[in-house]
Specification:
The protein is of the alpha/beta class. The chain is about 50% helix and about 15% strand. The chain contains seven helices and five strands; from the N terminus they run E-H-E-H-E-H-H-E-H-H-E-H. The longest helix has 21 residues, at about 40-60.
């Protein structure tokens, strides 16, 4: 059966570093890093919904295949970023994608969503000072990351029980320690 892991979280929480380490250490894991859409308005909504619709179709077609797919962000980030930075509302599509994921889960697909978070603002400041790809209008700051994190936490608090949600606090932890927690959650054999 298909095994899906989605690593989510605000900028600076360590997502990309952790998924890269997982990809390098676990055999036969396919890493997917969905693009962020800089388009706004109707064009942005159309681009993002058709993109995630296609992913859902693809995942559903693979449901019985023994693949491990690892996402560095997924449609949850689209929901957060549309709430904070876009003029369009992604809400209805977001709810539909949640139903799609629950349906996949009911077919036996193992789905884990791991939210990485950080509360130490000094540590976050250091992480954000590294070279990162900017996301259009989004300011790189501790305040913006905390604002994003609040939306992620609210989002996952409201999610139905059909999906396995795990929260990993990255405060004061090395990437190796965060990686070890994720590996333990997933039960990967390293």
């Amino acid at each position: 059966m298909l095994n899906i892991t989605i690593i989510e979280g605000a900028r600076g929480t360590g997502k990309s570093t952790v998924v890269s380490k997982i990809r390098q250490s676990i055999p036969e894991v396919t890493l997917i890093n969905p693009t962020g859409f800089h388009l706004d308005g109707d064009d942005g909504l159309t681009a993002s919904t058709s993109y995630y619709d296609s992913w859902m179709d693809f995942l559903y077609s693979l449901r019985y295949h023994p693949s491990n797919i690892l996402f560095d962000r997924f449609y949850f980030s689209e929901q957060v970023f549309s709430k904070l930075y876009k003029s369009y509302k992604f809400d209805n599509f977001y709810e539909g994608f949640n139903l799609d994921m629950a349906s996949l889960s009911h077919t036996g697909v193992k789905i884990d969503i791991i939210l990485l978070k950080i509360n130490n603002e000094e540590e976050l400041e250091k992480r954000l000072s590294r070279d990162k790809v900017a996301f259009d209008k989004v300011e790189e700051s501790v305040n913006e990351t905390m604002r994003q994190q609040k939306e992620y936490e609210k989002l996952f608090k409201e999610l139905s029980g059909a999906l396995n949600i795990h929260i990993v606090d990255t405060d004061g932890k090395s990437i190796d320690e965060v990686y070890d927690e994720v590996i333990k959650i997933k039960g990967y054999q390293v």
